[in-house]
Amino acid sequence: MEKKDLKISQIINRLYELSNDEKMKDQIKLVSEDLNFFLKLKKESELESAGEIAEILLKETGTGIISVITAIIFILNKYRKDHTDSLEKKYNKSVKKLFKGLSNVPDIKSEKTEKQTDNFIKLLLTITDDVRAILILISIQIYKMRRINVYNANEKIQILNLSKNIYIPLAHRIGLYNIKTELEEIHMKHTETDMYKLIAGKLKETKANRDLYINQFVEPLKIFLKEAGYRFTIKGRPKSIRSIWGKMKDKEVSFEEVYDLFAIRIILKSDIKNEKIVCWNVYSLITNRIRNDYEIGFLRLS
């Protein structure tokens, strides 16, 4: 593909790097040739959108080459009337099947989803029996949310409501927690702006103390797990603004009265066969340690 400065060109090069299979490289070559068609039409902005969404798929959802190829074709299909016929003739069965699943998804209007969230999610999961199709749809949605300010008022309302009613619960259901959190944050930023700014400001003010507290929390935990013979990485992070606001509403308290402001993630190194046992063993060790420390009056972990 020409125009190497475009994001989509970088994605195509990355797909070649990831592929060790000649047949797969043939599929990448086909989509690269199709992209040249759009360059000739001077549709660089559409190509950039496809590139951004493809990058989300690769970096944030863990999908593979087939998903990225299909997503690019799907996104650009509306600009080329003969593209569906062309796809049937050129691409392999995996691409065609995934494309068909995406194409079967109806155009959902946000006003219809308010009271039927579960029904629409079930509909999506029924129509698209391949989870990769769902990952592509979520990637398209997070791309729209990240650039929400480019849309007009009506479009913005549609995108925000679809995120709230469909894509946030869908991302949660399939385990894309980082994307779920980001969708929630962007939604709150544009629908509950004053509260979002208030909590963001409070978090900024308390960051130094919070970071110190997290470090003090994590250090004895590291020593404890190391002595127990586990290989691990521990990460501390503040709770999301949306999560904190949820606690404030549920408990009817101010920001200062919310004490659960951070979370700790322990990533354990283990073979696949024993990973569940290792996770449960560490969970038991930590909870027993908390219980014992509490009983003797020293709550080092919480």
Number of strands: 2
Number of domains: 2
- The CATH topology label of the largest domain is Hypothetical protein af1432
Strand arrangement within the widest β-sheet reads 1-2
**Percentage of residues in helical conformation:** 55-70%
What is the beta-strand fraction? under 5%
What do we call the CATH homologous superfamily of the largest domain?
Hypothetical protein af1432
* Oligomeric grouping of the chains: single chain
The H/E string reads HHHHHHHHHHHHEHEH
Q: Note the gap between the termini.
A: 54 Å
CATH class of the largest domain: Mainly Alpha
Structural class: mainly alpha
Query: What's the architecture of the largest domain in CATH terms?
Result: Orthogonal Bundle
Q: How many alpha or pi helices?
A: 14
What would you call the shape? globular
Summed over residues and divided by their number, the pLDDT gives a mean of: 85
What is the CA-based Rg, rounded? 23 Å
> Low-confidence spans: pLDDT under 50, at least 5 residues?
298-302
Summarize the structure.
The protein is 69% helix and 5% strand. The protein is mostly helical and 302 residues long.
List keywords for this structure.
2 domains; 2 strands; 14 helices; 302 residues; two-stranded antiparallel sheet; Hypothetical protein af1432; disordered C terminus; mainly alpha
Describe this structure in words.
The chain has 14 helices and two strands; from the N terminus they run ααααααααααααβαβα. The chain starts with 6 loop residues before the first helix and ends in a 7-residue tail after the last helix. The radius of gyration is 23 Å and the shape is globular. It has two domains: about 5-195, Hypothetical protein af1432 (Orthogonal Bundle); about 200-295, no CATH class. The model is unreliable at about 300 (pLDDT under 50). It has a two-stranded antiparallel ribbon with strand order 1-2. α2 runs parallel beside α4 (about 65-75) and α3 (about 45-60) runs antiparallel to α4. With about 300 residues, the protein is mostly helical. The protein is about 70% helix and about 5% strand.
